[in-house]
Amino acid sequence: MDLASFLTSVLTSFVIFVVLVLVFTFLSRRPGNAPVYYPSLLLRGLDPGEGRRRGTRSPVGWIRDAISASETDVIAAGGVDAAVYLVFLSSVLSILVYSGIVLLPVLLPVAGTDRGLELTAAAGISPKNDEKNNSAPELPEIQRLALSNIQPQSMRLWAFLLSVYWVSFVTYFVLWKSYKHVSNLRATARSTPDFKPEEFAVLVRDVPRSSPDETIKDSVDSYFRALHPNTFYRSMVVTDHTKADKIYLEIEDHKKKIARAEVLYANSKTESNPEGIKPTHRTGFLGLIGKKVDTIEYCSEQIKELLPKLEAEQKTTLRDKQQQAAIVFFNSRSVAASASQTLHAQVFDKWTVMEAPEPRDIIWPNLSRNIYERQIRQVVVYSIVFLTVVFYMVPITAVSAISTLENLRKVLPFLKVVVDRPAIKTVLQAYLPQIALIVFLALLPAFLMFLSKAEGIPSQSHAVRATSGKYFYFVVFNVFLVYTLGKTLFTSLRTILDNANIGVIINMLATSLPGGATFFLTFVALKFFVGYGLELSRLIPLIIFHLKRKYLCKTEDEVKAAWAPGDLGYSTRVPNDMLIATVVLCYSVMAPLIIPFGVAYFALGWLIAKNQVLRVYVPSYESNGRMWPHMHTRIIAALLLYQATMIGVIGLKKFIYSPILAPLLPISFIFAYICHMRFYPAFANTPLEVAQHELKETPNMDAIYTAYIPQCLKPDKLEDLDVFEDAQSHSTSRAPSI
Amino acid sequence: MDLASFLTSVLTSFVIFVVLVLVFTFLSRRPGNAPVYYPSLLLRGLDPGEGRRRGTRSPVGWIRDAISASETDVIAAGGVDAAVYLVFLSSVLSILVYSGIVLLPVLLPVAGTDRGLELTAAAGISPKNDEKNNSAPELPEIQRLALSNIQPQSMRLWAFLLSVYWVSFVTYFVLWKSYKHVSNLRATARSTPDFKPEEFAVLVRDVPRSSPDETIKDSVDSYFRALHPNTFYRSMVVTDHTKADKIYLEIEDHKKKIARAEVLYANSKTESNPEGIKPTHRTGFLGLIGKKVDTIEYCSEQIKELLPKLEAEQKTTLRDKQQQAAIVFFNSRSVAASASQTLHAQVFDKWTVMEAPEPRDIIWPNLSRNIYERQIRQVVVYSIVFLTVVFYMVPITAVSAISTLENLRKVLPFLKVVVDRPAIKTVLQAYLPQIALIVFLALLPAFLMFLSKAEGIPSQSHAVRATSGKYFYFVVFNVFLVYTLGKTLFTSLRTILDNANIGVIINMLATSLPGGATFFLTFVALKFFVGYGLELSRLIPLIIFHLKRKYLCKTEDEVKAAWAPGDLGYSTRVPNDMLIATVVLCYSVMAPLIIPFGVAYFALGWLIAKNQVLRVYVPSYESNGRMWPHMHTRIIAALLLYQATMIGVIGLKKFIYSPILAPLLPISFIFAYICHMRFYPAFANTPLEVAQHELKETPNMDAIYTAYIPQCLKPDKLEDLDVFEDAQSHSTSRAPSI
């Protein structure tokens, strides 16, 4: 890639971005698009018009709005999790800005005035590896401003060496400040005076099998009543309510159908046909076959039939499908916090307690898995993930090999017509492997989420964190390392295995990395211009929304479902940002020109994410910034990768002072350890200090209890709560033991 | 070593043992020796006569007594710790007995009827290594019954291979049962109805520096009163009381001197001299120089002078020498247990809480070390221990080299007279290196204990565990591995470093170990016959006691101090037993003849330890079996060493099925992990289940509080308790905040 094509590529991306921003500016002013551009405001009952009107005044109004919004506004709109995500973006941004302030004015002149590349080219000797040799003469203008242009053993390398220290210490400083800030955010969020059900509850797992004539509910009650005599409020045993849920959803579905049919019926009553046409549908597969029935009548009948079924199933579920897990409620926050941290049983595989997740955050089927099952599942999942990360390229290559046009023609002869046309053939032949790659990559997050949930994790937020972690290692390994090392990795795999030695790996990184600088410059540019353009303009949700509204949605609820914005999707968003952070960090000293691109990426990312948080996305759970330690660890992992690489790269320049960099690795580990020791416990558990804060009002314990009842088991009236509870415990008509 | 000398050595040891047992039987019957043989009984106010009388009837009476004593008796006499130590001995005993039952009848015939050694000798080819070649012909009778006698690739190796599995599973089974048993012992001990001060207290460290106009006591009080409004009872800030302690000890010393002088004075009042001679002493160095004074008068005056000083110092200590640690008391056991497990502060380096150790168990100066200091100290100590374990032989060799006779003569010329006599010279020359070794080995436990305390560990019992762990690794490395591998290790250190590979180490172990079998047979025999003989007969304490009583002790207190038995000394006892267990385990399949010796060692050990626990030693603290997880881990470490060795040894016989042994290593790790997960938490923390048990009576909170006041600060009357507490908090005459 020469300079011209590099500039073309960056410019193209930029033009696309500008077009998309203009599209956004234009489309977001139209009131009909409000549900796509301001769903969060609409759901919170605010008037999107204000923002729109301000937007009318100036096309960059949304930028002003995003910048002027305070952290409190962000927390109000998207919760602490969104605020923490913004802190993450701004932390990386600060690291890059502080680094750039020193590195750009210092390193660019130092590198630009040396003549390492000229000398290498003149002498005709090949640099350390072929790839670099190929790329170096192609793009001398950019390479000249990078470490490659420094002559070996030059004293100019001191500037690069000290820059590595500068970047590292900037990272420590920013991370420390951010961790402190997030820690305070979390503490503030957890000590607000309004009560949250999860703060009064404790999740109990591994409830031992009680005697056959006692329900699990009874044994939970008697156990906790004995251990917390004055503070135990109530308990709710987790049930296997899949069947009840199925019936409940069926009823809901029928209700929706009736609503839709009624709208259709009303619309059909035109003046010419005042009677209207009663909507009908077929009862068979997908409404295509089977008997034709009147929708409203049929569905009402179905509901009538299902309701008693649901009631019976609810009773059976509560009484006979109790699982070995329960949610226990206490009458004060600090007691619940303390109970969740206290060992209850003498043997660890019974009565395991932990903080209860938010009701909407719970993954019900995972609650009842016992501790051994969880351990085994974790081991299995980790092995699968390891194999996936390392051997991901293998199935893709295999699929691309099998799915050649020739094979496709044999298996699916009806494609012949299309495939045999020369023009289509060429295009398909070129893109089939890429399509395979894209399909596999698109399936990956869902696959990783499935794996994370299979671990037996009790909450959505935790599963998202687990997925994000797995995805991070995947992208760093497969995009960054595999691209950089490329073929070298696989040919020299034998060498690595023979000398299982970290030194070899660092060396290999060091020889391969400088060659990749230009690729990643383009990559970052493309990623943020096009990616953020699409994100901001929300073109795809917009199109889907309008199509749905026009052709499918009949009732208000259906329209609402069509523009439901979902949440921020941390599980793919964070690892992708982390990939960019890793790339930019690793190249920051080697090719400082990447820093402005990184700064642009994270600045724009922060701006757009803030806009989307304020106006678009609606959080589907609140984990009070539990994600932060996870992000922190991964930034440090990126820093370690960067430091190890730099030790190798500067060492390869035959610079005798390069061992001065070695202490950075242990310093990073010590920094990580100190942060973990100092801040992490308050993320893993609720400190008593925080739980102790006064509440605004006496908590409504019934409401807290009700919040945890699954939708399909919820009694119609609050007064039925006792009946609900009794259904669990009195199955053997025994008085609850005390 | 041939068979004759082996038998001689074992027989000699046995004769010494029998003589010592006879000496014990004879001496323990004499009433004058009761304080040496029955100190524990005396201190508990029991009549040692009963035991003695029964002992009179039969010389093996003590054996009957020891066997018939139940675990409850043991706990009553020596606490749970002693009972756990006995469980440890009996567990190893069971492992060896179960192993022996199968291994001896199976392996001895299998090995004895093969002719591997004959063939090797006949062919004149050298076996795998030279050492074995040297030892094999020397002791064929024993080697013939061992693995060495099996021909390579023989199907008889199946018997050995399956034996490794048998021993491993026996170990898992016994360890699981023992862990369960000890876990119950601990739970029972912790839920007894009589109250113990430490169960109501929590140790708080890293108390943040309060504002200058507030004492630490005030800030502790206000913090805990806010977080535990209904359950907080009182707090006691740890003070730096070294100076007060010094004055207090001085007073006590003077009091002792007066008591002694009064006895001397009374004794001097004979009929011929009814006035008596007033005892005098000199005030200078060691009572050798200085003015001669009347002891009673002088000491009384000194006490009179010191008492106000002590009082003033007590006040200063309480007010101005408060440290950043405190003991906080709660009004119920379960609240204290829960509080000790709950995170209090939002940042982890403040308000760290943990269970309070027993008052007598506390190491006061360590309490106030802050969390960072503790971490740094731990790292430094671990490094020193690592260096000590690995390079222990170096200073010894160096000292032996320097302390040759020639050098000694030069440095200490006055030794010339002794050293120049030929007879003495020969003996000295032969023994000087051994003396150096013995001196170094004798200093080691004290050195390791010093290191463990320097880590900042808050309790004696924890320091003992830490010392024991360090000592275990030391003996296994220096006695077992270094002896076995001998010179091979150091010559092939380069090979190991070059191929940093666990396989090489296993191979080396496998080639060297079989040669050591005979040495260790003798070692175990010597160790237990002579060691246990001395232990049982208590010859050295007996001689010291009689010498002291005759020449030094004048008052009752002095006599009592002369026979004070001390505690069991787990820090050296456990690692020494573990060394034998490791040796016997490692040789159990290679040379099954070692098993009877191991069984004898642990059976006798159990018997004698039980006797000593019941009659001699007095526990100086009670940690409720906290030592067990430590022992358990080390038995598993020994098992892993054994399994790794056996994989190597059987592999060296070119037995193609030897990889069948490989799964044993992961199985052991999984077993260790499951045990840890299941049982360990109840050792690290107090489960609520256990803390909840009812108390016999309402606890006397004042007594609990008083138990933690250091001797030198204790007020004379219980009523002064409030004054004592106020001295800490009211220094600024501020009312305690609520």
Automatic annotation (TrEMBL), chains A, B:
Residues of the CSC1/OSCA1-like 7TM region domain: 377-649
One Pfam family matching this protein: PHM7_cyt
Bilayer disposition of the protein: Multi-pass membrane protein
Lineage top rank: taxon: Eukaryota
Sequence ranges assigned to domain CSC1/OSCA1-like cytosolic in this UniProt record: 200-366
Main location, first listed in the record: membrane
GO cellular-component term (any): plasma membrane
Transmembrane regions listed in the UniProt entry: 6-27, 83-108, 157-176, 379-402, 431-451, 471-490, 502-521, 528-547, 578-609, 630-650, 656-675
Annotated localization: Membrane
Stretches assigned to coiled coil: none
Domain CSC1/OSCA1-like N-terminal transmembrane: 5-177
This protein's record includes keyword Transmembrane: yes
GO molecular function, one term: calcium-activated cation channel activity
UniProt keyword annotation of Membrane present: yes
Keywords carried by this UniProt record: Ion channel, Ion transport, Membrane, Transmembrane, Transmembrane helix, Transport
Protein family according to the UniProt entry: Belongs to the CSC1 (TC 1.A.17) family.
Descriptive protein name: CSC1-like protein ERD4
Species of the source: Panicum virgatum (Blackwell switchgrass)
